[in-house]
Each structure stands twice: as C-alpha cells, then as structure tokens.
Amino acid sequence: MTADWHSIGYEDAARGEASTRMTAHREACAKHGITPEIRKYKRGHEEGLVVFCTGSSGYNRAQSGYQYQGICPQALEADFLEGYKAGREIYLVRTEVERLESRQNSLEQEQERIKTEIKEKEAELFDSDKTERQRRKIYQDISLLNERQGSLLQERDELIRKLSEGEAELRKLHSRSNYF
Question: How buried is residue 66: exposed, middle or buried, by Cβ count under 10 Å (0-12/13-18/19+)?
C-alpha cells in the first residue's frame, strides 16, 4: 500500500493545515506499516501554500472563522493577511449580529410568554371563587409582569438599534472589500 505524499502535502496546505499535520499522517500510517515520504510531502505542502496564501483565500477563510496559524511563507504572507484581516472583520461583525438576532428572538418569545401569563392572570381575577387577598396577589403579579414586559421592550429597542448598526457595518465592510 502506498500514498501520494506530494498530493497529501499539497492538499493539507491548500486547506490551511500546517506541515506539522505530517505527524498525524505518520502516526496513522505507522498502524498500517506505511512509511511517509517526508520530502515529497514537504514539497507538495510548499506548492499548496502558494494556492492557500492569497488575499482571497485569507478573506474567505477568515469569514468562515478560520484561525490563521502563521503557515504562509514570508513572501506570501502580507497578501494573505490583508485579505484575512478584511474577512476577519466581517466574521466578527456578522457573529455579533447573529448573537443579537438570537437574543432578539429570545426576547420576543419571553414577551409572548408574559403576554399569555398576563391574560391568564386577568382571567383569574374574574373567578368568583377568589378572595380579596388572592385578587390583590394577582394584581401584584400582573403589575410585576407588566414591569418585566416594559424592561423587555426597552431591551428590544436597544437590540434593534444595535442590529441596525451591525447590519450597516456589514454592508460597509462588504462594499470596501476587494476579495469577493
């Protein structure tokens, strides 16, 4: 059984893997009695880095959350990092926008739950079996729920503002970018 070590090195580099990935290959192959050809792997890896270490690759990888590990040769790194920086900015802003959207959805669900609870409490008020003391407690509960609802509305308004700012920032970052 043999392997094309040049191709393996090339593919690892083209995916952004460091040449230290060879250690994992070596360990896996040892179990099957295969000896890696390190020179061929390294030559393939160097060629794969030429494909990987471009501005557009840095941009695309960073947008999907890739963490750069300093694998690009010095001659190619500046171009890669320029794209990576632009893509990373977009990734961070988009991640924050997604977090805000998730929080907004949670708020809306909580608001609906509170609305339902208020309606249920209001219906309890008209239950003829309730004592005056029980009705006062229900009024207090409704009052607390309305206060919570007000707090949620304020938080929602702030989230909407932040979401709008984040989406505007994303549009600005995309329009500035030369990599897509």
Answer: middle
